[in-house]
Design a protein that fits this description.
single chain
């Protein structure tokens, strides 16, 4: 399995879940989770780009 794929997928799932929670009354928690997920997507993408071979 390619290095960086797991954090990217995990970040995508967390970001999507947080985006659905933004409409609820838990906006502060959803915003934190969204930032956490997006950070994982970015860091996982960096790993995927660095380890292409």
């Amino acid at each position: 399995m390619r290095e960086g794929l797991i954090p990217t997928v995990l970040g995508t799932v967390v970001s999507a879940s947080a985006a659905t929670l933004l409409r609820s009354r838990y906006k502060l928690a959803a915003t934190g989770a969204l930032g956490f997920g997006l950070a994982h997507v970015v860091l996982g993408a960096i790993d995927l780009i660095e380890h292409r071979r």
